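Example 9 (inverse folding). The structure is encoded as follows.
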């Protein structure tokens, strides 16, 4: 197996774990709305999840290991990706903030300041900032 194959395999495995974690959060309340389903469909495409893998993960999201972000920067990177997807076409409507709060808490942000974090993230994404600016602004939002 070449280095490229190994890297590709690890990347796909990480994406499956990431998608599985998001499915768990989205389905935690036992309800799956049409908006959430559309978001999951779009996310699966973004994370390069095949239709077969998508169905397997929806059937049993516990099958795939979660790769939680350890570093704060990694959590911010994932928050950036999710905020961009949630906010890109407003397909979730009023639920975009609620769903993003759930994801934020699942990423390890504290419930006490999650509203502030999500509001700031969505504001930055609305301004179409790049990842580096997003991370800088999120790290320094209390200064």
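The amino acid assigned to each position is listed next.
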């Amino acid at each position: 197996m070449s280095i490229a194959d190994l890297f590709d395999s690890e990347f796909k495995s990480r994406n499956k774990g990431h998608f599985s974690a998001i499915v768990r959060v989205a389905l935690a309340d036992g309800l799956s709305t049409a908006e959430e389903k559309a978001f999951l469909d779009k996310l699966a495409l973004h994370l390069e999840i095949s239709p077969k893998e998508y169905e397997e993960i929806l059937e049993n999201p516990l099958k795939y290991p979660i790769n939680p972000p350890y570093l704060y920067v990694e959590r911010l990177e994932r928050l950036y990706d999710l905020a961009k997807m949630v906010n890109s076409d407003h397909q979730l409507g009023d639920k975009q903030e609620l769903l993003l709060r759930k994801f934020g808490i699942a990423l390890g942000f504290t419930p006490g300041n999650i509203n502030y974090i999500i509001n700031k993230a969505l504001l930055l994404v609305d301004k179409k900032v790049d990842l580096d600016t997003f991370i800088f602004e999120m790290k320094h939002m209390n200064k």
